[in-house]
UniProtKB/TrEMBL annotation, chain A:
It comes from the Bacteria. PANTHER family: ABC TRANSPORTER PERIPLASMIC-BINDING PROTEIN YCJN-RELATED, ARABINOSE-BINDING PROTEIN-RELATED. Pfam families: SBP_bac_1. This is Multiple sugar transport system substrate-binding protein. The lineage of its organism: Bacteria, Bacillati, Actinomycetota, Actinomycetes, Pseudonocardiales.
UniProtKB/TrEMBL annotation, chain B:
Pfam families: BPD_transp_1. It is found in: Cell membrane. The chain crosses the membrane at residues 29-50, 83-107, 119-140, 152-175, 196-219, 260-277. This is Carbohydrate ABC transporter membrane protein 2 (CUT1 family).
UniProtKB/TrEMBL annotation, chain C:
Coiled coil: none annotated. Belongs to the binding-protein-dependent transport system permease family. CDD domains: TM_PBP2 (cd06261). Pfam families: BPD_transp_1. PANTHER family: GLUCOSE IMPORT SYSTEM PERMEASE PROTEIN GLCT (PTHR43759:SF1), TREHALOSE TRANSPORT SYSTEM PERMEASE PROTEIN SUGA (PTHR43759). This is Carbohydrate ABC transporter membrane protein 1 (CUT1 family). GO terms for cellular component: plasma membrane. It is found in: Cell membrane; Membrane.
Length: 440, 292, 321
């Protein structure tokens, strides 16, 4: 907390004094600490144990700088909104940004974040999986350091599948058929996925499109492609949502609803498409069901062709308005170092972007308990398999507009207006790429 | 009505029961309906705030397990405390300034003859009708360049602006009630208009000013649009806006319990105002119309 | 930020009365000059603040609406004339939001009027617990809109809500278009009905008791007394309450933002302007919407004044006598 407007604060204090005792307390709380060192303000989505990583890096930095972790909202849209507003306002109090994988091109194009070069670039790229690395790159330049990645798996109740004698599905069609068979046997059958109108729903769409070898936006982010694969993606999701195997709350479900839906007593779910965090969650909340909780690769589209899944995760970028860029680069490198990433992976189940961590089985102390990657990530091979052949959501500076247009036409999945929607999408996405037209 | 439906009721006692108990019982029943209408949504959010995480989704109107944890949790985070401080501070300062400026203007409008009075009346009425969202974009851009974005003054200014019409009109309604002969008497005794205002009228106007202050405070306390548009951090984010940014313990956890607890906390001042100053608030809201 | 409007007219009646009174009663010319000066000085601060925060931004907003100005593409800023207006007015999304807003406004104000009148009669007439009823009725008025909206959201949300299973449908009530519109209307009506009732109650107080008694003597039924005696006396109060509730309802933002985030075609114009501006960072399009909303509100006010003869705030002050 720096003194951006010392005059303002003083005036405020005077008024506070008038306003009464409550506000005297307020004054004491808003008072800024003595500015001895350099403060690096980090804006990042909330993570349970990330403060520990920050503390470690602060200890390492000695007196050079002190990282302060400001939590952003949970949803990607909210995170972006907060950061963008600060940056557009030219705020010099923002130093480090935790950007969602879809945001780098936009922030780079608007000149809000600076390029990584030289030794910093070298260090930030070392051993990083190519998929995540692509999300930190724009126009061939590196604009962020990957902090963590994420990829969804197909989770299922192995006992149910065994009882119905169906194989673990590898495509959406197989999954629908399996669920229908379970339903006909009066067993829990539902396929749970997050289909609310928000950024998260596009993870499924982009995965389906990539698995069908399609493209929505060209690689340079400048034109609309919307090819057969992109149309196929729409068909796949509509088919799933209208096959009678999804939950009534599909159209309002976000990640946590999906996870809770599977864990709830009397759950009708047999399958779940979600991030790996659900594994630790079900162990805690429903140990009984956890015993049969198994995972497989996210379903594909074409039989015999493994899926390609849209990756999530965060990248750390340095603000162009920061007055302490050198320190910010350093801080970022520490926060996403191999050790830090491993800590986050073990403590909070955030998937590392550095490949070697997946095979590193040396135990680490997490809050008094030692843990290994195998224990925290029994599914780590499956994750790595998907991460090595991922789908990257369209990279374009106008991603927000593209995403909004897609969300508008894809929600709810069951009402996707095929084939009419394809032409609408082509036209509106073309406008969106140039930030023309009205956002719905 | 319910009483009338009893078919075998004695012809003679019916009218007397009707007159003695009927209307009261009937009104009592209607009162209960009104009360239920007003407080059920409030009780529901209170109930949610006391539920434990495991019973949060049991859909029961009354908690099956009670806990204070949600309250303890929000007061453990600086996010909520800071937002509460912002809310209280911003609303109080804005109320103070709006009431002071409003009192001055209302006195002038009610008592003095000067050019431009009608224009002022008209302009403030227009502001009251103004769609606030129309101001969000230019204010955002202006505050950005003036460095007021995400600061206390950045919110206080628009609050004062939109509270002023409210303050001016409520106050001028109250000022009409004041026995102005006293002012005249003071002037006869040689007081200037300014002195008459300060020494005689201001103390008489105090109850009206207090009522206005309550209404203005409720108005500032309530704002959401400016609070989410013109803030971006704990520096100045008020509670209504902060509720949207509550986070669960982990990335995907839904913060229903803590959001409810925070919602209850910011409802407490409103309930206190309503309980203790019901008459004043009703008078403030309706005085103009009743006497008009 | 909602009730200012209603308050205004209510008190405008009083303020104008005061104005007339002050105007009619001339002071001795000795203090005349001092009085003028004092009047101007007393009003100056309020006037300055109001002008600075609204006047200049309105002009700036109009200026921005003539630009291509997207904060993400700073290099492309340019003057484009009325192009943004063509874009917005040619967009089905804008008209959809416009239609939704209109529908919500008309439906919720109509319900509020009926419920508000009922509540006003109850508060005016009740024999037991009058103070209690009035106190309790103030709760919805005073409560923070966002808090109430959260309460409704959690009440209808399929995982937590005690009301969620009320309609045993296949979809979540907050997702289904009509049920969610119903919930938004409910939240609006709940919050503003008591306030409407208070305003109408003030109008009720103007109805002379002896007039009602006389009507009763003449054998008029309760309904006839209501329609023939009370309503005509209350007409100005009703129209003023309607005007300001309509303008207020047209700005609906908080409830939609919390309940549905305006998803799946349930944006109000305010939500859409907010999205284009704050999410899309498109100051040009966002400002264009702001200006259009402003124009619409002005038209609504004009229609009320001309068509229904509502006491125009600040305009035909003598017309209401």
């Amino acid at each position: 907390m720096g003194e951006r407007f010392p005059g303002r604060k003083h005036g405020q204090r005077r008024l506070i004094a008038i306003a009464g005792a409550v506000l005297v307390a307020a004054g004491a709380l808003t008072a800024c600490g003595s500015d001895s060192g350099t403060t690096i303000n980090l804006y990042l989505a909330p993570e349970e144990s990330f403060q520990k990583v920050v503390d470690k890096c602060n200890a390492q930095a000695g007196n050079r700088y002190n990282i302060v972790f400001h939590k952003l909202p949970r949803d990607a849209d909210g995170q972006r909104e907060q950061m963008v507003r600060r940056l557009a306002a030219g705020d010099t109090e923002v130093d480090l940004l935790g950007l969602d994988v879809t945001s780098v091109p936009e922030f780079a194009e608007a000149k809000w974040i600076v390029e990584w070069t030289g030794a910093n670039k070298q260090q930030a790229s070392e051993g990083v999986l190519p998929g995540p690395q692509a999300t930190a790159t724009w126009n061939g330049k590196l604009y962020a350091a990957t902090k963590n990645t994420n990829v969804q798996l197909l989770w299922y109740d192995a006992a149910l599948l065994k009882q119905a004698n169906v194989a673990v599905p590898t495509t959406f069609d197989e999954m629908i058929a399996a669920a229908q068979k379970l339903k006909s046997m009066n067993l829990p059958y539902q396929v749970l996925l997050h289909g609310a109108q928000y950024e998260g729903m596009l993870v499924h769409y982009n995965s389906a499109v990539a698995s069908a070898n399609g493209k929505v936006i060209s690689d340079d982010g400048k034109s609309v492609v919307m090819d057969a694969g992109a149309v196929k993606g729409l068909e796949v999701l509509k088919k799933l949502a209208t096959a009678g195997v999804t939950s009534p709350s599909l159209d309002n479900a976000k990640e946590e609803n999906v996870q809770k839906g599977f864990e709830a007593a009397g759950s009708q779910a047999a399958f779940e498409l979600n991030w790996p965090y659900v594994y630790a969650s079900i162990q805690k909340n429903n140990p009984e069901r956890a015993k049969n909780f198994q995972y497989a690769r996210y379903p594909g589209v074409n039989p015999g062709q493994p899926s390609r899944t849209a990756i999530g995760g965060f990248n750390l970028a340095v603000s162009a308005h920061s007055k302490h860029q050198a320190e910010a680069f350093d801080a970022a490198l520490c926060l996403r170092s191999k050790e830090s990433q491993k800590y986050s992976a073990l403590a909070d189940a955030f998937a590392p972007t550095i490949e070697s961590i997946y095979t590193d089985e040396s135990p680490m102390d997490i809050g008094g308990k030692t843990k290994t990657m195998r224990e925290a990530y029994p599914m780590k091979e499956k994750l790595l398999e998907e991460l090595k052949d991922p789908a990257v959501r369209p990279l374009t500076p106008a991603y927000q507009n593209v995403s909004t247009v897609l969300q508008t036409h894809l929600a709810p999945f069951s009402d996707i207006d095929l084939p009419g929607v394809v032409e609408k999408l082509r036209k509106e996405l073309a406008d969106a790429l140039q930030s023309k037209g009205v956002l719905p | 009505m319910a009483i009338q439906t009893a078919p075998d009721q004695d012809q003679w006692t019916r009218p007397s029961i009707w007159t003695r108990w009927g209307p009261k019982a009937r009104w009592g029943l209607i009162d209960i309906l009104v009360i239920a209408y007003a407080i059920i949504p409030v009780l529901w959010i209170v109930s949610l705030s006391f539920k434990t995480p495991s019973t949060l989704s049991d859909k029961s109107f009354i908690p099956n397990e009670w806990t204070w944890d949600n309250y303890i949790n929000i007061f453990k985070t600086t996010d909520f405390i800071q937002a509460l401080i912002n809310s209280i501070g911003i609303a109080l300062i804005a109320t103070l300034i709006a009431v002071v400026l409003g009192t001055m203007a209302a006195y002038a409008i009610a008592r003095l003859d000067f050019p431009g009075k009608r224009i002022l009346v008209g302009v403030s009425l227009m502001i009251a009708m103004f769609p606030q969202v129309s101001l969000v974009s230019p204010l955002f851009d202006m505050e950005r360049s003036l460095g007021l974005f995400d600061t206390w003054p950045g919110l206080i200014l628009p609050y004062i602006t939109f509270a002023l019409p409210l303050a001016i009109y409520t106050l001028s309604a109250f000022f009409r009630e004041i026995p102005w002969e006293l002012e005249k008497a003071a002037k006869m005794d040689g007081a200037t208009p300014g002195q008459a205002f300060r020494k005689v009228i201001a103390p008489l106007a105090a109850p009206g000013v207090f009522t206005t202050a309550i209404l203005v405070f409720i108005f500032c306390w309530n704002d959401f649009l400016f609070a989410i548009s013109l803030t971006s951090t704990n520096e100045s984010r008020t509670v209504p806006a902060a509720l949207q940014f509550f986070t669960g313990a982990s990335y995907f956890e839904d913060p229903t319990g803590t959001t409810s607890a925070a919602a209850v906390i910011i409802t407490i001042p409103i309930i206190i105002f309503v309980l203790f100053f019901q008459r004043r608030i009703v008078a403030g809201l309706t005085s103009g119309a009743v006497k008009g | 930020m909602s009730e200012t409007g209603e308050l205004l007219t209510q008190n405008a009646v009083g303020a104008e009365a005061a104005v007339r009174k002050a105007g009619g009663k001339r002071e001795l010319s000795e203090g005349k000059k001092a009085e003028r000066k004092l009047g101007l000085w007393l009003c100056a601060p309020a006037a300055l603040v109001m002008l600075a925060v609204t006047g200049w931004p309105i002009i700036y907003s109009i200026w921005l609406s003539l630009q291509r100005y997207d904060l993400r593409f700073p290099d492309q800023q340019a003057f484009v004339g009325l192009e943004n207006y063509v874009t917005v007015l040619g967009s089905p999304y804008w008209w959809q939001a416009f239609g939704i807003t209109m529908m919500l406004t008309v439906v919720s104000v109509a319900i509020e009027l009926v419920l508000g009148m009922t509540l006003a009669l109850i508060m005016h007439r009740t024999l037991v617990g009058r103070g209690l009823v009035r106190t309790v009725a103030l709760i919805p008025y005073g409560i923070v809109t966002v808090v109430a909206a959260f309460s409704w959201r959690y009440a209808w949300q399929s995982e937590t809500g005690y009301l969620a299973d009320l309609f045993a449908g296949q979809t979540d009530p907050l997702v289904n278009f009509w049920s969610s519109m119903g919930i938004i209307t409910l939240a609006e009506v709940w919050k503003t009905t008591p306030f409407m009732a208070l305003l109408l109650m003030a109008g009720l107080a103007l109805v002379p008791d002896d007039l009602l008694k006389a009507a009763q003597m003449d054998g008029a039924s309760a309904w006839q007394r209501f329609v023939k005696v009370m309503l005509p006396v209350m007409k100005p109060a009703i129209l003023v309450a309607l005007l300001f509730r309509t303008l207020d309802a047209f700005r609906i933002f908080d409830n939609i933002f919390v309940l549905t985030q305006g998803s799946q075609g349930r944006s109000s114009v305010s939500i859409q302007a907010y999205n284009n501006l704050i999410k899309g960072l498109n100051l040009g399009i966002g400002s264009t919407m702001s200006v259009l909303i402003f124009i619409t509100v002005a038209i609504i006010a004009f229609i009320f004044v001309k068509l229904f003869g509502t006491a125009a705030p600040g305009s035909d002050e003598e017309g209401r006598r």
